Amino acid sequence: MRDLGLAPTRPSQGQPEGDEEEEKESDGKSKLQQEPKPFRKDTGVGKSSIVWRFVENSFDPNINPTIGASFMTKTVQYQNEQHKFLIWDTAGQERFRALAPMYYRGSAAAIIVYDITKEETFSTLKNWVKELRQHGPPNIVVAIAGNKCDLIDVREVMERDAKDYADSIHAVFVETSAKNAVNINELFIEISQRIPSTDANPPSGGKGFKLRRQPSEPRRSCC
Ligand SMILES: Nc1nc2c(ncn2[C@@H]2O[C@H](COP(=O)(O)OP(=O)(O)OP(=O)(O)O)[C@@H](O)[C@H]2O)c(=O)[nH]1
After folding, report:
1. What pTM, to 2 d.p., does this model score?
2. Which stretches of sequence are listed as region Disordered (predicted)?
């Protein structure tokens, strides 16, 4: 059995700032006008839906936004091994952003999700990559998921561009649809394959997991 800590990114905290509402300062300027919010576009990309599809194999079109974070686990039999995923699903709203380091610091991998129909979510993703590189665990596996690939008619982010970017930072990349269950299991399996085995990296304190590299399962082309 191997335990895989995973943190789909995007959270924070502190005094609620309001997400979509603009708060007015005493000088009458809104906070939006005063300071850039590099992570503002994180909500609604489908992080929770991806986790739900993976853990419960279900999809809720009326799912509520995540408050703070939620935690789920799933164990999958993959070839001759059991992989246990310990997953933190973090909130995308700006007011929860400061919580993010709590989740990614102890994680073996992070999935950064963007919405293929919203270009700004892809730009935001790069800020997360930077933050993970600067403040995350040195060997954290980064995965990029371009979600909602069932909405191909309103696509704003080209798959090739996202793939080129992912390759440039050595990240796992896949386009997913939580709605249609496309590439969800493949995403998690590919991440688990990238996490070094305990043979190569002896764990401290006797905890960890053993994993051999296996050939990737074929991915489905998204829609
Ligand atoms: N068409 C389509 N809609 C999706 C997909 N995944 C999620 N959605 C919808 O997108 C909306 C947001 O989904 P969530 O899973 O709550 O997104 P989130 O990123 O977790 O949002 P926060 O919790 O606010 O950070 C919901 O209405 C979902 O039903 C998908 O693959 N395809």
Report:
1. 0.79
2. 1-44, 198-223
What's the average model confidence in pLDDT over 79-93? 88
End-to-end, the C-alpha distance of the chain in Å comes to: 34
Instruction: Determine if ligand 1 sits within 6 Å of the CB of residue 43.
Output: yes
What is the rounded CA–CA span in Å between residue 195 and residue 119?
Answer: 29
ipTM of the complex: 0.99
Determine if ligand 1 sits within 6 Å of the CB of residue 175: no
| CA 91 to ligand 1: nearest atom | 25
Q: From the CB of 183, is ligand 1 less than 6 Å away?
A: no
